[in-house]
Amino acid sequence: MRITINDKECWANPGETILTLAEREGIKIPTLCYLKGLSPTGSCRICVVEVEGQRNLVPSCAFPVYEGMKIKTNSPKVRRARKTIIELLIANHPQDCLFCVRNGNCELQSLAAEYGVQSLRYQGERRVRKQDVASPSILRDPEKCILCGRCVRICHEVQNVGAIDIVERGFKSYITPAFNNSLNTIPCVFCGQCVVNCPVGALSEKSHEKIVWNAINDPKKHVVVQVAPAVRVALGEEFGMEPGTVVTGKIVSALRRIGFDTVFDTNFSADLTIMEEATELLGRLNNGGVLPMLTSCSPGWIKYIEHFYPDCLKNLSTCKSPHEMQGALIKSYYAEKKKINPADIFVVSIMPCTAKKYEAQRPELGEDYQDVDAVLTTRELARMIKNAGIDFNKLNDDYFDDPLGESTGAAVIFGSAGGVMEAALRTAHYTLTGREMDNIDFRPVRGLEGVKEAEININGTCLRIAAVNGLKNIDHFLDQIKDGNSSYHFIEVMACPGGCINGGGQPLPSDPEKTEKRMQAIYKIDRELPKRGSHQNESVQRLYKEFLGEPNSHKAHELLHTHYLRRDIE
Which of 271, 272, 273, 291 is nearest to 282 (CA)? Predict the structure, then answer.
């Protein structure tokens, strides 16, 4: 169809919206409520444009094009309307930008600057609501909410949880869990996808920064930190680097300067997880165990199945997630080697995930001591580095400490959806055949698609596998398991779309292009490492020889495995 936009004739496809047409033509239209791939609502009206023949301005994100349409995206009427909308939003917003967690990275703040808002023209009644601080992972501040509805659509359409929704009408509208409860008392899985898609400071992670600073400054504490694989390809964005820039060495340098006593790599325990998980899978296959086996690395996914499909808990691997395994080893194996009382060790995990904060305080993950004492998101680490006066971009590379710092390429791909599956297949193949896979890059499970399925023949054993990311994609598989109709042997599940590289604790805002670049960086690290199978990790092999015995041994089960809870009765 022929369309005229800003006096330029162009072509458009039937069903296309004005916004997508404008983007293709290089015309920027501001948005707040719009998220690509989700149902458009047109609720914020920031994206209004002028269309010849239409009585009112129309929302470009939800208005389809038609033959002969003439559009103005930057007329005086459009600019005035957008500025007025921004001013009205600000009038109903707390004036606390200087000490808001989103200061300098707030979409409303940026639009105010872009449209020249320099004074508060509108004043009147303002919505006043209490903060929700009970959740171990997410802080909710309803007063800062601008009712864009992005969090609601992410929770319903992408994560299939439906923990929150818009209630009331008009000026009284607000977003809340059912019956105005706390996020901590409902089936919220704490994945944080609402946080990374919120345009303002209405949602943020529950900060552990003060707890960690206090531990570092306590001379009685030996503070150990570990870094997840997805953090190293995302942290650089907080310091102006291109998405996907690998900053592993700089992270280690920064952590030492902040004051951590020991710096370990969570990739070590990712390799350990594969040794335990691959052994568990082969044991189930050979001994008539419960199949398909479901991965257990993602705490948001664990909480989802506990709430909504508790009858399938028996299918979950009993392996703890990598950072919890690492925490357990730090307070046992490492403590024994260094002759340190485990009670004096404080373990900090740097994670791309908000659900890890919840996971760390689960009573099932630690008997005498919690495996992990505090969890910092990628964003929190960036704030601590800045607070410590460290020029991150000028840091030289440093290296992780031994013995829990060695890792392989199989460990780093844990950061991307499909990575756990691929890493497990590499080791399962070696265990069954005694040789490495002919093509170690198992591409059928790679990529950002919601579901990836494949079959692989290992020494006569045909495995049917699936890698699922984004919780809305798992129900089909769980329904098959409940009905006894599943033909799969092994299924990887990641709560966040794309996996940990797009976790709820990663740099803001969430962006598919950034996620793609982070994924490519993860696989580049894997390709360039000399060892790419978890079974090749010499430090892991030494750990078994000196301490654990063998994969799935009694001691390994005591330290590295766990159990789960039915939450459907809550």
Answer: 291
Q: How many Cβ atoms from other residues are within 10 Å of residue 62's Cβ? A: 17
The domain boundary, picked from 205, 223, 251, lies at 205
d(CA 86, CA 46): 8
Q: Mean pLDDT of residues grouped by 10 in the chain (570 residues)?
A: 95 94 96 93 95 96 96 97 96 94 96 94 89 97 96 96 94 92 95 97 98 98 98 98 98 98 98 97 94 97 97 98 98 97 97 98 90 98 98 98 96 97 95 92 95 92 94 96 96 97 96 96 97 97 97 97 85
From 36, 69, 89, the end of a domain falls on 89
Helix (H) / strand (E) element for 306: namely helix 299-308
- Cite the DSSP H helix spans in 370-418: 378-387, 409-412
Residue 334: domain span: 210-560
Residue type, 203: L
* Pair 372, 470 in one domain: yes
What single-letter amino acid sits at 437? Answer: M
- Same domain, residue pair 214 and 201: no
The CA distance from 246 to 128, in Å, is: 43
Residue 29 maps to a domain: yes
How many folded domains does the chain comprise?
3
Q: Which residues contact 334 (CB under 8 A, 6 or more apart)?
A: 224, 262, 340, 345, 403, 404
Give catalytic residue positions.
277, 280, 297, 317, 356, 359, 364, 500
pTM: 0.95
Q: Give 46's strand partners.
A: none
Question: Both 79 and 132 in a single domain?
Answer: no
**Cα distance between residue 439 and residue 423, in whole Å:** 13
List the end-to-end C-alpha distance of the chain, in Å, as a whole number. Answer: 54
Bridge partners, residue 458, by sequence: 461
Neighbours of 393 (CB within 10 A): 11
Q: Which residues pair with 467 in a beta bridge?
A: 452, 492
The reply to whether 182 and 218 lie within a common domain is no
Residue identified by tokens 């060892």 is 531
**Can you say whether the dihedral through the CA atoms of 262, 268, 270, 275 is positive or negative?**
negative
Q: Tell me how crowded residue 245 is: count the other CB atoms within 10 A of its CB.
A: 18
**Residue 67 contacts residue 1 (beta carbons within 8 Å):** yes
Residues 6 or more apart in contact with residue 205 via CB below 8 angstroms: 137, 138, 139, 192, 195, 354, 357, 377, 379, 380, 504, 505
Q: What's the rounded Cα separation, in Å, for the pair 486 and 47? A: 46
- Interatomic CA distance for residues 434 and 427, integer angstroms: 10
**For the chain, the helix, strand and coil percentages under 3-state DSSP, each to the nearest 5:** 45, 15, 45
